[in-house]
Specification:
It comes from Pundamilia nyererei. Its EC number is 1.2.1.32. The protein has 490 residues and is an alpha/beta fold. It has helices spanning 5-9, 47-66, 69-85, 87-98, 102-123, 160-173, 188-200, 214-222, 236-246, 271-283, 300-316, 335-350, 389-392, 408-415, 431-440, 473-479, and strands at residues 11-12, 15-17, 20-22, 27-32, 37-43, 131-134, 139-147, 150-154, 177-181, 207-209, 229-233, 252-256, 261-265, 293-299, 354-357, 379-382, 399-405, 420-421, 423-427, 445-448, 463-464, 467-468, 481-489. The protein contains 16 helices and 23 strands. Strands 15-16-17-14-13-19-20 form a seven-stranded mixed beta sheet, sandwiched between helices. Strand 4 and strand 5 form a beta hairpin. Helix 3 packs antiparallel against helix 5 (102-123) and helix 5 (102-123) packs parallel to helix 6. The chain binds NADPH dihydro-nicotinamide-adenine-dinucleotide phosphate. The site of NADPH dihydro-nicotinamide-adenine-dinucleotide phosphate has 32 residues, from helix 8 and helix 9. NADPH dihydro-nicotinamide-adenine-dinucleotide phosphate (NDP) binds next to helix 8 and helix 9.
Length: 490
């Protein structure tokens, strides 16, 4: 059957297995979130494709794991160079696929993807292992660390290449081979990366990318008996499913999950800096960042002034066409997600919440071709009880809720009063107070008087339902290797 002109113009992705691009029997439609139109076909892989990818990764493992860390580092550096050389092409593709602004992709996502390879290629060269002499027993004990084998890597749609490379880079730098599955909604830059793998000289089978849906390709990967390790970033609900599916094989799991992150703002905070940063921390990337602030607790004496200034600043955070340099936010990932985010606004209204700006109040000025895109203006809500689903569940959109508090203890208790524990921010000039509050907050990351300052050497991950395990620097080295204790009797 001959193809229609529309089909001919679609981008068609292929799996990358054993160093070759391989087509698939069936495909999933992928949408441009800024127009709502299908523009790409993504392989709908299942067990057969995952089996082939795991076999290729297994075959490549002995040689890759036997390379010196320096040899591996050289290849990873080459990959970083190639991403940087193609930065603009990657940024345009990430924006079209995900809906984020080109500026965000150009300044955050793609540079960070390159940096992930640079950082882990060098950081892996500097780890040492332990040694403990037992002279009274005539023994010397020491530890060695070996790559685990085939790593299964599953990443979400919000920061597609950024989070995928955050996993691929440490996994292969440590000597593992990988089978990666990006989100079916944002697969394009992963496919582009595979072309660079070939150019950088990554040996066939070291990195395999299988595209498809979570329930088919993802499930086949997490339940594959020859994949001993899974690094997953995504929702808490999917993590629970992955934990169940991998349990019969006792896999090593690293789970980076959702958040419902509080900002606690005391009366002595530097309000100029605090408001500017908290607007960014609430709305960056359309609010589709696991670390975004979604509950803002403000000391009552400054509450009214804060609210007025915050709403004014939020209104200036422009939502518009992703290619427009003046847009701060682009489109949300999908129609379903837009509807889900909107449903929380409707819920807030039904519970007596006040919508200060955004959804239902502010009209977006979009060109005709973007009228069916998944855009939503930045929305600020007050008057919602802490027990409401709006304050308890991860909305993952450009929505934030503000509420007053009276005492430090109350702020900490309310900050901790959700099932999540990923990140938190604290704003005060009182150094004793910020230490005290940071110490008590149940969160894997606490920023005081700033947000999203990241040193990749530090552990990254969440407490409670926000995750299991930590990655970054030494923690990634530990996760992507197995430790062995050896005792020598002399
Ligand atoms: P999902 O959990 O829906 O999906 C994440 C990945 O898992 C996707 O590749 C998805 O595939 C795949 N998947 C879905 N079902 C299964 C399954 N049964 N078995 C194996 N894999 C599966 O999350 P989202 O993509 O919606 O991402 C948003 C979530 O990610 C938010 O909760 C956010 O907080 C969290 N996140 C956490 C971060 C952290 O570091 N803590 C960072 C960024 C995001 P597919 O999409 O193709 O179906």
């Amino acid at each position: 059957m001959s193809k229609t002109s529309e089909e001919r113009s679609l981008l068609v992705l292929e799996n990358y297995i054993g160093g070759k691009f391989v087509s698939c029997r069936s495909y999933i439609d992928s949408y441009d979130p800024s127009t709502g139109e299908v523009y790409c076909k993504v392989p709908d892989s299942g067990k057969e494709e995952v089996d082939a990818a795991v076999a290729a990764a297994k075959e490549a493992f002995p040689e890759w794991s036997a390379c010196s860390p320096e040899q591996r580092a050289k290849i990873l550096h080459k990959l970083a160079d190639l991403i940087e050389a193609n930065l603009e092409e990657f940024a345009q593709a990430e924006s079209k696929d995900q809906g984020k602004t080109i500026t965000a992709a150009r300044t955050v996502d793609i540079p960070r993807a390159a940096y992930n390879f640079r950082f882990f290629s060098t950081s892996m060269l500097h780890h040492t292992t332990d040694c403990s002499p037992m002279d009274h027993m005539g023994c010397l004990n020491y530890t060695v660390r070996c790559p685990v084998g085939v790593a299964g890597l599953i990443s979400p749609w919000n920061l597609p290449l950024y989070l995928l490379t955050w996993k691929i880079a440490p996994a292969i730098a440590a000597g593992n081979t990988v089978v990666a599955k990006p989100s079916e909604m944002t697969s394009v830059t992963a496919w582009m990366l595979c072309k660079l793998m070939q150019q950088a000289g990554v040996p066939p089978g070291v990195v395999n990318v299988v595209f498809g849906s979570g329930p088919r390709a993802g499930d086949a990967l997490v339940s594959h008996p020859e994949v001993p390790l899974i690094s997953f970033t995504g929702s808490t609900a999917t993590a629970q499913r992955i934990t169940e599916r991998s349990a019969p094989y006792c896999k090593k799991l690293s789970l980076e999950l959702g958040g419902k992150n509080p900002a606690i703002i005391f009366a002595d905070a530097d309000l100029d800096q605090c408001i500017e940063t908290t607007v960014r921390s609430s709305f960056l990337n359309q609010g589709e960042v696991c670390l975004c602030t979604s509950r803002i607790y403000v000391e009552r004496s400054i509450y009214s002034a804060f609210l007025e200034r915050f709403v004014a600043a939020a209104k200036k955070w422009k939502t518009g066409v992703p290619s427009d340099p003046s847009s701060k936010n682009g489109a949300l990932i999908s129609k379903e997600h837009l509807e889900k985010v909107r449903s929380y606004i409707a819920l807030a209204k039904s519970e007596g919440g006040i919508i200060h700006c955004g959804e239902g109040l502010d009209k977006l000025d979009l060109p005709q071709r973007n009228k069916s895109g998944y855009f939503m203006p930045t929305t600020v809500i007050t008057g919602i009880s802490d027990s409401s689903r709006v304050m308890q569940e991860e909305i993952f959109g450009p929505v934030t809720c503000i509420s007053p508090f009276d005492t430090e203890d109350e702020a900490v208790a309310r900050g901790n009063g959700v099932r999540y524990g990923l990140s938190a921010t604290v704003w005060s000039k009182d150094v004793g107070k910020v230490h005290r509050v940071a110490q008590q907050l149940q969160a894997g990351l606490v920023w005081t008087n700033c947000w999203l300052v990241r040193d990749l050497n530090l552990p990254f991950g969440g407490m409670k339902n926000s995750g299991v395990g930590r990655e970054g620097g030494k923690d990634s080295y530990h996760f992507f290797t197995e430790v062995k204790s050896i005792t020598i009797k002399h």
